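Summary of Year 1 activities. Much of the first year was spent building the evaluation harness for sequence design. The harness presents a backbone, in tokenized form, and records the residue chosen at every position. We chose the following record to illustrate the format because it has been used consistently in internal testing since the harness was completed.
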């Protein structure tokens, strides 16, 4: 979309956002529900005159959070980026924040220009009163080593049709997965997955399968079978949205390669500063 107002040429900006998705029905604007994109557009209507376009780097499910979510904004304005960022933060709900806003190339697109994405899923090994909106509490002794071995099976290009919703079946369900990791620290187990893109509910179903592996209810051979042959099995194990965080979006191949090298070099560690420590 190109926006233009007489005397105010359209300008495009790259936005870096963080949000608590608990109260929202995902990223994408809906007429009958509160969403992240809808909230941004409502704030933009008070900041700019004329049409505004805001696009994200992908959809997040209802209840899913973001640490470093990238979007782009196009509007006819002469306002400085810092002023725009301040106005957004003054108008947006307390659970959505614009961390950074900068001018970008007119052809930059938050979704189409993205070369990779990473997500984190947090599993708590104990009940927590304060972090309950950001974790999945699993009251069981989970075998982390088995979960890690199962996560490694997701590495590479696979057809994730078994992890997809029916709406996704009209397009390719093949996804390239890089560096799937299961990390344990104190009372937290963290599943990190990096990929080219992800299908709706795919990561939550991957997480649910890993928890069943950790409970010894499933074995590695069953995970391999799910990846080989379509089945509706993973849908039964869909993890709740609360523990899922969009972590990073990448727009440069070298930056993407550096990130992958850093997170796969021993010792394994969680590099995001946004994670809760229980």
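For this record, the design step produced the sequence shown next.
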């Amino acid at each position: 979309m190109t926006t233009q107002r007489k005397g105010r040429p359209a300008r495009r900006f790259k936005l870096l956002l963080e949000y608590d998705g608990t109260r929202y029905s995902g990223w994408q604007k809906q007429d009958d529900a509160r969403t992240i994109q809808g909230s941004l557009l409502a704030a933009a209507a008070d900041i700019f005159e004329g049409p505004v376009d805001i696009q994200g780097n992908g959809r997040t499910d209802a209840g899913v959070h973001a640490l470093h979510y990238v979007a782009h904004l196009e509007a006819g304005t002469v306002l400085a980026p810092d002023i725009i960022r301040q106005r957004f933060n003054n108008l947006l709900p307390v659970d959505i924040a614009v961390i950074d806003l900068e001018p970008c190339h007119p052809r930059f697109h938050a979704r189409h220009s993205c070369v990779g994405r990473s997500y984190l899923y947090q599993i708590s090994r104990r009940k927590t009163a304060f972090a309950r909106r950001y974790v999945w509490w699993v009251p069981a002794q989970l075998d982390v080593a088995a979960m890690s071995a199962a996560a490694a099976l997701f590495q590479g290009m696979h057809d994730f049709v078994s992890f997809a919703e029916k709406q996704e079946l009209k397009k390719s369900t093949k996804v390239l997965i890089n560096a799937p990791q299961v990390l344990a620290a104190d009372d937290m187990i963290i599943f990190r997955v990096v990929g080219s893109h992800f299908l709706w509910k795919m990561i939550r179903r991957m997480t649910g399968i890993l928890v069943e592996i950790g409970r010894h209810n499933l074995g590695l051979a069953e995970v391999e079978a799910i990846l080989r042959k379509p089945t509706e099995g993973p849908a039964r194990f869909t993890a709740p949205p609360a523990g899922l965080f969009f972590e990073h979006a990448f727009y440069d191949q070298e930056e993407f390669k550096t990130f992958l090298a850093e997170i796969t070099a021993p010792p394994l560690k969680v590099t995001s500063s946004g994670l809760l420590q229980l």
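DSSP finds six helices and ten strands in the chain. Quantitative recovery figures across the full test set are reported in Table 2.
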